[in-house]
Amino acid sequence: MMATDQSESTFEGKWQRQTYEEAFKRLGIPIEVITMPAQRGTVMVDSGAVDGQFLRVFAYADSHPEQVRVEEPIYDVVFGLWVSKPELSLQRLADLEATNWSGIYRRGVELCQRSLSPLVPAERLSTISTEEIGVRMLLAGRVDFYCDLDVSINNALYGAEFKNVTSIRPLLTFGNPIPLYPYLNKRHAELGTRLAVVLRQMKAEGLLERIRQQVREELKRQ
Hints:
The chain is an alpha/beta fold. It is 37% helix and 24% strand. Helix 1 links the parallel strand 1 (2-4) and strand 2. It comes from Bradyrhizobium frederickii. This is Solute-binding protein family 3/N-terminal domain-containing protein.
């Protein structure tokens, strides 16, 4: 049993499930996926009540000795600024300081807060609670940019409310890409080695990107 905090109805939840289903099929192992908050997933995998979880950062292993990292990341996530106004352009994040743009970032996304606060005055920078609110504010022209992780934006843009929106685009990304890895309870360490091999094979075949593209097309048709 593998845990994830991504609902099966979302873009991220769909393509990640299909990826793991194919990987475990190649291993000859049935897989069951359960959705739960990330913090609960940690507790359940630590205790062995759940066998593993879809995605965690590299350093997660340092504070969770009951889990083993599968040494092949599923994919990288990046931080970025998204915009809707076609006339906006920016070469570097530091160039924000010379603009009069207003922006938002999702509450709790600390890299956005740390990166933007020195560049944008407090009266032009605010927080929001969900990515859907961020996209709505961009589309309404209430702000110039929205800072978040690309995975969060993707979930919103491929959801039912925004699937026909074409004006939202990434203006730039910043910071280093963050690879995300599968984790398993330590009793499955040998399986983790085999899973890493299968994931590398799937990447070499271009299968992960094909799965993502198929899910994009499926969600747009719904």
